[in-house]
Amino acid sequence: MSMNILVRFPLPPVIISGRNRITIPRAKSIESSPLMDQPKKVIVCGGGVIGVCTAYFMAAKGAAVTLIEMSDVACAASGKAGGFLAYNWCDGGPLEELARVSFNLHRSLSEELDGARSYGYRALTTLSLTVKESEGSTASRFLPSWIDGPARSPKTIGTPETTAQVHPQLFTRTLIDRAVEKYGVKVEIAKLERVEVEEGRVGSVVVEGGRVLDADAVVLAMGPWSSKLTLLSSVFRVYGLKAHSIVLDPRDGSSITPHALFLSYYSSERGGALDPEIYPRPTGEVYVCGMSKEEEVPDDPAEIKGNPESIAMLKRVAKSVSSHLGEGEAVVKAEQACFLPCTDDGMPVIGEVPGVKGCYVATGHNCWGILNAPATGAALAELLHGHSTIVDLKRFSPSRFLLPTNLQTLRLCLD
Ligand SMILES: Cc1cc2nc3c(=O)[nH]c(=O)nc-3n(C[C@H](O)[C@H](O)[C@H](O)COP(=O)(O)OP(=O)(O)OC[C@H]3O[C@@H](n4cnc5c(N)ncnc54)[C@H](O)[C@@H]3O)c2cc1C
User: Fold this and answer.
1) Which residue numbers delimit the FAD dependent oxidoreductase domain (predicted)?
2) Which letter does DSSP use for residue 137 in this model?
3) Which residues sit with their C-beta closer than 6 Å to ligand 1?
4) 307-364, pLDDT tens digit by residue?
5) Is residue 60 part of a domain?
6) Residue 126: which of 290, 13, 21 has the closest Cα?
7) Same-domain status, 211 and 354
8) pTM to 2 decimals?
9) Are residues 154 and 210 in the same domain?
């Protein structure tokens, strides 16, 4: 895997002003009234954005939810991601419906939770640019004035109707706080060790130290750690792609306009293009990410550190794009890394684990987990009652990985 990718694929449409204008339907209303006479006891494992959205929507439908997280809510990718959202960038692929429904749910959640104030939800214009370090700076009348580096070939690839952003850590924490306050979700810091299965049905989970928590249903939302559980690794593989990011606080934040930037970046020392992304936030901070590479995921999220040369490259990108983001002009508030949860076919895995009634999995969301978390959670909340109507989950089912050899390993693991 090369050292440069955090590419969102397929490429977004180029917008030619005013023409391919899009009208986005409102989110289908999500039934939040309790559907159960006897609330189902659900344990959600993993306090990233996927686990938190699932806990929120399941509890809103009346389940008695406990979320267990081994470190801290939003301590991993869900706290360190860009938080970029796009309505139609997954069109034509298997994520189309999930992404469209989720984009709309983000908008309605933001209205409900005052997202603009509590987690920096806002609509954005999104540009693609080519930046070559070897070329001189150009002030283009097509670009906002803070982009004063050698930027060429600007294209509008998202409008405020089709692209938006959240601060992912604040989003995840706001949602879990609301789930606790409004729907009685319990949050426990505990590490899942195993799921106990009796006669093909989930019965309980065991956490580190041997404590047993009874459950009618369990959701495994452990991001890139999913493969550490044999129950899942016997069916499919989730691997981690380590990606880097920095957060800058420019002295003159007011000059930074709400434009997300997707770059083809040519450094004068490296061959080939890098694909970093730059997201200004409403607070005036600017988030820059890129530089990814497949690496072993450490057991403890707190042990994840950025590689110095990748962090240095992101600083160099920021400075080349804008003089406002260079050393002396901006304070570096964070230098960090985290892991994208990836699957072998590039698609998320959402659904019931084959052979284990009541055990669900939601992982492998790759570079679109912040976007696709609300629809994932809302669809799983419906699946708990038999069938998801807001998104067809069939294509995301873990059973797509079931080869006869996997089935054999899964049987051994359940015996
Ligand atoms: C640099 C970068 C930028 C990104 N930008 C965007 C973006 O702009 N837009 C977008 O949509 N997506 C983006 N993503 C992708 C997004 O961040 C991920 O897809 C998403 O955060 C995955 O969420 P998750 O809940 O599956 O995993 P995680 O956030 O990794 O959460 C998993 C949680 O499970 C916990 N856990 C693991 N094992 C156990 C256990 N045994 N017991 C208890 N708890 C456990 C972990 O501690 C962790 O908190 C980006 C990712 C990166 C790396």
Assistant:
1) 41-383
2) P
3) 6, 45-51, 68-71, 75-78, 81-84, 191-192, 221-225, 243, 245, 289, 301, 338, 340-341, 363, 365-371
4) 999 999 999 999 999 999 999 999 999 999 999 999 999 999 999 999 999 999 999 9
5) yes
6) 13
7) yes
8) 0.93
9) no
